[in-house]
Write a sequence for this structure.
């Protein structure tokens, strides 16, 4: 059994379906006035975040607390990382305090893969550099499943900064495993070479990418990771790749508008699209708690099949 969730690249379609089904059950708990369940009673969950987060960190913390776990948070800025402690020493220190589940976000791709074999705790990747963000893709998939009923033959268009995005990689692995037809669109300078090899169609204009799509997912332009000018200006990005109500009409009627957040309003999507009838962005956030409850519960029961 696998004790960790490091990415969707290495888990099977059957395991993904199991997580989504379990998350559906967990979501019923979120609708109750009393959200406390004993699923993780006596377990300890630590969130170790080397990068900023609102949704992921809070939803892991709430998910752990709803399931009666002991939950604690550490950020790099407020820890002994500032005194020069290494990632491995930090993780081993947290592990030595009786931690059962270590949720990690790190700016370095592969950081959770480095730590997982060194600790007895289950490691959950909450986003590593430009590699994967598996629980984000799982919550996206739960939202799509709820709204569209399944994935086979569904056209999902993912638009934006494909190069720097860990969300796109996890979504591509997960969605293609379950039979969706995935297109990615963005400026050539934000498109990594070899995306086609992951089984997706690649477009360098937004119109072709979103034509007849069932789902239009925007990705944040990651200004903090742009070391050199990969496109002339934000205004030009919006002009050529931003999705407004006119462009959204190219997708199928009733297409879902999704975004992992945080959104740059007026960059990836117009405000009218973000706040419009087709947007399920807030439902994605709710599903994030359900998915994280499901993942932690499955890991506490022995983990994923090899
Ligand atoms: N989607 C996502 O990972 O958001 P946060 O950075 O706020 O956790």
């Amino acid at each position: 059994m696998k004790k960790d969730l490091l990415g969707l690249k290495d888990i099977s379609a059957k395991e993904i379906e199991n997580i989504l089904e379990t998350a559906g059950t967990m979501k019923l708990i979120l609708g109750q006035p009393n959200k406390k369940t004993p699923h993780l009673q006596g377990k300890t969950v630590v969130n170790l975040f080397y990068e900023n987060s609102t949704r992921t960190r809070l939803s892991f913390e709430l998910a752990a607390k709803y399931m009666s776990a002991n939950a604690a948070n550490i950020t790099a800025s407020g820890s002994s990382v500032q005194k020069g402690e290494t990632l491995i020493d930090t993780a081993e220190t947290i592990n030595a305090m009786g931690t059962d589940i270590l949720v990690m976000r790190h700016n370095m791709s592969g950081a959770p893969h480095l730590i997982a074999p060194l600790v007895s705790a289950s490691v959950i990747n909450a986003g590593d550099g430009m590699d994967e963000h598996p629980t984000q893709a799982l919550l996206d998939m739960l939202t799509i499943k709820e709204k569209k009923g399944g994935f086979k033959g569904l056209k999902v268009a993912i638009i934006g900064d494909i190069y720097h995005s860990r969300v796109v990689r996890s979504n591509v692995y997960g969605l293609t495993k379950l039979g969706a037809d995935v297109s990615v669109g963005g400026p050539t300078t934000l498109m990594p070479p070899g995306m086609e090899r992951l089984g997706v169609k690649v477009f360098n204009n937004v119109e072709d990418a979103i034509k007849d799509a069932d789902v239009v997912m925007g990705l944040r332009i990651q200004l903090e990771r742009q070391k050199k000018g990969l496109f002339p200006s934000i205004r030009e990005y919006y002009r050529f790749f931003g999705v407004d109500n006119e462009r959204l009409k190219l997708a199928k009627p009733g297409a879902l508008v999704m975004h992992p957040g945080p959104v740059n309003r007026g960059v990836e999507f117009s405000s009218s699209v973000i706040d419009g009838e087709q947007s399920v962005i807030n439902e994605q956030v709710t599903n994030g708690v359900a998915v994280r409850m499901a993942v932690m519960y499955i890991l506490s029961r022995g983990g994923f099949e090899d």
Observations:
- Residues 53-56, 127, 136, 260-262 surround phosphoric acid mono(formamide)ester (CB under 6 Å).
- The beta strands are 44-49, 70-75, 101-106, 122-128, 155-159, 181-185, 201-203, 215-218, 256-258.
- The chain has a mean pLDDT of 95.
